[in-house]
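Supplementary notes for students who missed Thursday's class. We covered one full example, reproduced here. Read the sequence, then the structure, then the short commentary at the end.
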Amino acid sequence: MRLPTGTELAIALAAFLLAWYAAGIHVNRRRAGQLVRQVRDSIQPLGGTATIRWIGRSAFRIEVEGLPSPILRLVVNGLLEPRETFLLWLVGRMGGRRDWLMVNATLPGPVGPGFEIYHPRRRGAADSAHRAGEAGWTIEPVPGRQGLVAATLDANARAFALDLLAGLRSVEIWSLSLHPEDARLTISLPVRASENVSKLPVFDVLPSLAEAVIRRRR
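Structure (token representation):
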């Protein structure tokens, strides 16, 4: 049996990567459309006027204005896995990367106290850790939420952060944070391709989370 030559192996690898690239672009195009529809259907009950902007083939941004209180403005950023590039996709999968949403809700200020709940090995963790480090917050594991840690100033802020996290129920998240400087509540979460329901659960609980933040101020 003749072993393939180096040239034949290189040609086979190039053909595989080219086929993967073409298939990945096709899958991501379909997945992007599906995810935008999911977000659109999920935010429709909230009211307001939504604007959708595509950023390349693998990312999008949805901005919602004119919302009723307690959410003044909603921005949803979506980023897909790099399915068209085999090595990047493989490394990302090994690191737990999935299609990802970041939900930013601007609330009537002032709000507080600020906090960061995040998964140290997931998207956005570096920003959360940097903010916690600059603020000098204490970082402790979150009970009952494997992998998540909470960065807060004191016990009262930690209790407040954990109460908000409990409001997310069983929704899997990568981060939950409150930014008093611009009255912004942020939720970062993976969206699995198998989660093809028409509405994403995080948007069902978002108004109640916003109300909880406002009640804390009062």
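Commentary. The longest helix spans residues 6-43. The mean pLDDT is 90. If anything here is unclear, bring it to office hours.
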